[in-house]
Specification:
The complex is a heterotrimer of chains A (41), B (228) and C (288).
Chain A lengths: L1 H39 L1
Chain B lengths: L4 H18 L1 H21 L4 H33 L2 H7 L4 H31 L10 H23 L5 H29 L7 H26 L3
Chain C lengths: L3 H23 L13 H27 L3 H24 L10 H21 L2 H34 L7 H22 L5 H29 L13 H45 L1 H5 L1
Helix pairs in contact in C: 1-8, 2-4, 2-5, 2-7, 2-8, 3-4, 5-6, 5-8, 6-7
The chains are: A mainly alpha (41), B mainly alpha (228), C mainly alpha (288).
Chain lengths: 41, 228, 288
């Protein structure tokens, strides 16, 4: 039975881990864009 | 250049072979590497004669695969060193001729390595072929071509990537899995010689793999060569 | 466009929760395997989603390659249409062509899906966008494929006592995963000028490989029989219902993840372009 819960938990762990990497890259990119704007103005 | 494509292929091939022959250190180091692979594998797996027939097929082909990868990296590296690749790209010669020449050169080179490694394996594993031994020839030819045709293509693709040497096996191994399975199973079937089994399906599958991927490589090589 | 995202997100979350409930509570308990069988409701939809994403990646890669030249583009259009027509007509006209275990309707559906998706991608994505689509679907596809490869053994272990078996579907999935991970590595390691073309070529090779992988393992299995994971045969209609709900939920989820990843990629490329332009226009300040 534990296998069932481990499997479901693992599924979501994998998806959430990927989403975290996407979000992190996104915020890093946003920071870069802001820095570029600051340099211009 | 109005030379026929086959003429260009032959010319490139002879040039490559001549270069290989002149730079004997490359050949010698490859031969020694091949010997080392056989010895190391033989130390790691020291089976009784009965078992050896079961696993020798797999071991032999994995050893060939590794030797082939080292050889493939070598042949393109030389082109890159002398910026020959750029010369090919601007020449009007069709890219396919270049590809075929390289693939055939690699095929001969890897074939020589295999021919030298095989007797060593037979000795170390006390191998005796129980099935139709002649079938080993088409398996060897088709199998080697399968590795070499895709290997040449991916080596060309890896040329301008970072970590070029690891890139080739990384790209080659997954795609070669069905061919590898066919080669290993065919060889094992022939070695074990069980009359109820036949290597024919594997040989046909290998031939199909070769046709499919040779066509694919020829179709896409021009695109890959000019990619940028 | 941006407002739709949170709304869709909430809807998807709701759908996923509903699907989870269905899978864990509503679906009937399996006779031989017990509760563990419910992993099936996550394992199978993830596999179908991964395959769909990889299929889109293949179509996008082909498009990227053919659209560089208007001639090949036209030829490709006709080839796709021909394949579509053939898959709709041939299985019904010549029933002997249909391999055992497949149905004429599934072949026809695949054909229609191929044609539909191909032309949809063509309409909505420009050449560069096709490349971004290929990258996105490959990445998200690998994520879903990883889920399949993790849930598979977790299901196999309690039911059949082994973590792994060289079963046709599981092994084919593993090889597909390996091919696409190598695809992602190639994208990361190659210089940005040629990446799209090289990656597209690799995707085409991967697609050519898949049927060969399937056949080679299928025959290997007939020579060396081993337990079949995932079972075959008919499925209880109530279970099918739950399965489809879960698939729908995961498809919506995959869509949202792809959309986010796509937006990230688009932003990244815009930033790179701007930086490249700035470096060109202000050489002296760049040197400072």
């Amino acid at each position: 039975m534990t296998y069932l819960y481990v499997a479901y938990a693992a599924t979501w762990a994998i998806h959430i881990a990927y989403l975290i990497t996407v979000v992190r890259r996104y915020s890093r990119l946003k920071q870069e864009v802001e820095q570029m704007h600051k340099k211009k103005s | 250049m109005s030379a026929a494509p086959s003429g260009i292929t032959l010319a490139t091939l002879t040039k490559d072979l001549r270069l290989e022959w002149r730079s004997k250190d490359a050949i010698n180091s490859m031969l020694f590497f091949a010997l080392l692979v056989v010895v190391v594998f033989s130390f790691s797996f020291d089976p009784v004669a009965e078992e050896s027939r079961q696993i020798a097929g797999g071991l032999v082909w994995v050893a060939f695969l590794f030797a082939a990868v080292v050889a493939l990296n070598q042949t393109w590296a030389r082109e890159l060193r002398n910026q020959v690749l750029d010369a090919y790209r601007v020449s009007p010669a069709p890219a396919n001729s270049l590809f075929l020449a390289k693939a055939m050169g690699n095929f001969l080179f890897v074939g020589v390595l295999e021919a030298l490694m095989t007797p060593l394996f037979v000795v170390f594993y006390k191998l005796r072929v129980l099935g139709p031994a002649w079938q080993l020839l088409p398996v060897a030819i088709l199998g080697t071509w399968a590795i070499v045709v895709n290997g040449t293509f991916f080596a060309a693709m890896s040329l301008r990537t970072r970590s070029r040497e690891i890139m080739l096996p990384l790209l080659l191994f997954p795609i070669t899995i069905p061919a590898l399975l066919s080669m290993v199973e065919a060889t094992t079937t022939i070695l074990v010689g069980d009359p109820s089994t036949s290597a024919k399906f594997w040989i046909v599958l290998l031939a199909t793999y070769d046709v499919v991927f040779t066509t694919g490589c020829l179709a896409l090589f021009e695109t890959v060569l000019h990619a940028e | 466009m941006k407002k739709a995202f949170p709304i869709l997100g909430l809807l998807t979350a709701g759908l996923l929760s509903y699907a989870l409930y269905e899978g864990l509570v509503v679906a009937p308990k399996e006779q031989t395997m017990g509760e563990v069988q419910r992993i099936f409701y996550y394992h199978v939809p993830s596999a179908w989603t991964a395959f769909l994403l990889f299929f889109i990646n293949f179509l996008a890669s082909v498009q990227y390659l053919v659209r560089r030249d208007p001639k090949t583009d036209k030829i490709a259009n006709w080839v796709v249409i021909t394949i579509g027509v053939l898959t709709c007509v041939a299985p019904y006209a010549i029933p002997s062509l249909v391999p055992a275990g497949a149905r004429a309707s599934s072949i026809a559906t695949t054909g229609v899906a191929l044609v539909g998706l191909y032309f949809l991608i063509k309409k909505f994505f420009s050449e560069q966008e096709t490349d971004m689509l290929a990258l996105t679907t490959a990445e998200v596809g690998v994520v879903f494929c990883t889920v399949v490869l993790v849930t598979g053994p977790l299901w196999a272990r309690p039911v059949w006592g082994i973590w792994w078996t060289w079963d046709v579907r599981l092994t084919s999935t593993l090889v597909l995963w390996l091919i696409y991970v190598s695809y992602l590595v190639l994208r990361r390691f190659s210089s940005s000028g040629q990446t799209p073309v090289l990656a597209a070529a690799l995707a085409v090779f991967g697609a050519l490989d898949v049927p060969l992988v399937y056949f080679s393992i299928w025959f290997f299995r007939t020579q060396h029989p081993q337990p079949v994971i995932g079972g075959g045969g008919s499925i209880d209609p109530r279970m099918l219902h739950v399965l489809l709900i879960n698939w729908l939920a995961f498809l919506c989820f995959a869509f949202l993840v792809c959309w986010s990843r796509y937006r990230l990629e688009r932003m990244k490329r815009e930033v790179e372009e701007t930086q490249a332009l700035e470096a060109l226009l202000e050489p002296r300040s760049a040197l400072r």
